[in-house]
Amino acid sequence: MKKFLFGTNAPLTPEYRGFIAGALPQNPDQYLVDLPNCRIFFQEEGAREIAGVADLLTHVMRDALVELEMAWSAVDFPFVRWAGNKVALAAVDESVWREIGRFVEAHDVDKGTTPWHMFDANRNVLKPYHKHSTEQYDAGYHAIVYATEIDELSIGREVVLLWQPDDLEPNQTFSQRGDWPCEYALEWLTVSLIPAVKQWIYEREFGNGWKLPWRAKQARAFAEHLDRLFVVRDLREPPLMRHDTWCASIVKSAEALQIFFHARGEPAPFIRRHEMEALYGAIAIVAQGQRGYVGYVSSKLCLHREIADHADLIDAINAPHYTQLLVA
Known about the structure:
about 325 residues, alpha+beta, 3 domains, 8 helices, about 40% helix, about 15% strand, extended
């Protein structure tokens, strides 16, 4: 499915359409299409029909993923393939995860009756759990959270906390009392669990010793160290646009686009013709405010003539022949 979907309006090349093995050198209008368990030759029109079907299915798949995000309260959270499907909630230092594991072991549901004795203890997996219903929670498991390094998400010594949606019932519902959705799981981690673990470590190290005058300075320094260490980095990343409305500022949007086009490897990102026209039009609007170095801008736009000033740049962009320079 990865080879078939999510290439809407992409060119018929192997780089952008995974199911296109390539065009025949002796007959460039004929394409070799690589489908499961078979390879078939199609004329260009037939290959474009298959690509059109893929694009229609892409819309359906994207809508289904959006519904899943809403059901899990996972909007803007990264989805991760790690031992199945997971949702990346946040990132913490690996030492913080180890301390969470120690806290969980000390607060197994069978080891006490305090509100924090609410775990099916396992140092490697966070499993908040209640044997019996309480005023706040229903009986049963509330979430299953793993931690591992994820190259694209971890920074330095961080591990990523992964919420597991696997093996849920088809009509699974989520609530703060029962099965926790992603947003509430992150809120509980940040607002409740992390402060409790910090306090537990502090008391483990000092007990009531922090009240002693000769230990007060050391205790304050240790508390500040815990504050610096126990940081939960939110991994949610809102899109630049949602429902045809910009979610980010012009500057942030430009920075994101610049990083995208400069950081991407092969294949290079393709730009549809109407998108390129819109980009050129946006540059013309910016030029009305006398912004940007004209010589540099014109060279990057491949206008192929000397540009005198911002007004000349706008005229060059709006000239009828400039569209011939755009990449389809």
